[in-house]
């Protein structure tokens, strides 16, 4: 076995799940033969996995109630011309003034935006430029006090905010600050990846629309996606290509969506 | 519309199973699934790739579930997370289901995250990468938490509920 990777926790889990390639599986088996106590635990875990599957199998085997048929759910939405949901949603908020550019990366975005939104994006980009290059004081409140930061900014902005988790994208929160924006309070969250690249998420209350699609703009080397959701205007800005920033913007958007809007104090 | 239905409907049995495993109440589980599907339909344009559909749906469903728990706690309603402990399994014959019911009791001895991990990986067959997406944690963390969750379940099954304190979130 010399030269082989040592058996790890991940191997044992994948073994329990039956997801190892055959050579690795054999290596784990050999290892377990030498470690009878562990082998017994692994066997029990395999049995429990099976027991849980067996216990829950009945539920997936049940006939699906008609209330959950997609056609019925769609009919229940009572939206005219249903069938292209993103386009309909965008039309509903009056954003189809310009041309829809396309569904790049699976997300819709419109070519025309609102003036107010554009100016918020401009302010967000300006704030990004000023503060990401700041070495000593990039943030007012550091991420160590995240709960306080979020609570404070939520109170000042007047809407429950949340600092999205971008660990999967390689970015961690370093903190945030309060900013003025046309007489309103705006929140700026700053994130950093291991290469020291920073991105900012800007949020302020504004907009009468419930929701808009993504709007993209770039100024020099800085890109930004902005959108409105739940009475908040968001702008995510980074020194990145559109294609790199889009998945991050989608992640942020989805985290707010899937939590049904930012939950107060929930990080 | 046909496209949405043809992609979503095959996922419904799994979503119902996960919802029921979390809630142990048939009606509440179907309400959760319905909310999940409605949200998925209304956000259809924002899903990234079809390959991510399952992870996306389970993410929506889990977050709606957590949201519901949070709201119930805020409202101080009677049904809290703790109530799941007292819910009996639905088998009509206690003898034949005795062993199986214990598995669900064991599941209740875990934190919500551990429970979801065991369900998503062990029952719903999500890949570790998909599970990482659903829970919003790195892949390495999935493996270590899965390991801990399985050990905890095993210990519970060995020693019984009295020795395992239920973690209150």
Write a compact overview of the structure shown.
Chain A: This is Anti-sigma factor. Chain A is of the alpha+beta class and 267 residues long.
What do these coordinates show?
The complex is a heterodimer of chains A (267) and B (169). Chain A is α+β, with helices and mostly antiparallel strands. Chain A has helices spanning 9-16, 22-34, 36-61, 70-76, 85-92, 115-132, 146-157, 242-258, and strands spanning 100-102, 109-110, 141-142, 171-181, 184-193, 198-205, 215-219, 222-229, 232-238. Chain A has a seven-stranded antiparallel β-sheet, sandwiched between helices. Chain A has a two-stranded antiparallel sheet with strand order 1-2. In chain B, helix 2 (12-23) packs across helix 3, helix 2 packs parallel to helix 4 (53-75) and helix 5 packs across helix 8 (139-159). Chain B is globular, with a radius of gyration of 17 Å. Residues 76-101 and 162-169 of chain B have low confidence and may be disordered. Classes of the chains: A alpha+beta (267), B mainly alpha (169). Chains A and B meet through helix 1, helix 3, helix 4, helix 5 and helix 8 of A and helix 1, helix 2, helix 3, helix 4 and helix 5 of B. Chain B: InterPro entries: PhyR_sigma2 (IPR053866), RNA_pol_sigma-70-like (IPR039425), RNA_pol_sigma-70_dom (IPR014284), RNA_pol_sigma70_r4_t2 (IPR013249), RNA_pol_sigma_r2 (IPR013325), RNA_pol_sigma_r3/r4-like (IPR013324), WH-like_DNA-bd_sf (IPR036388). Chain B: It comes from Microvirga terrestris. Chain B: Residues 102-153 form the RNA polymerase sigma factor 70 region 4 type domain. Chain B: Residues 8-60 form the PhyR sigma2 domain.
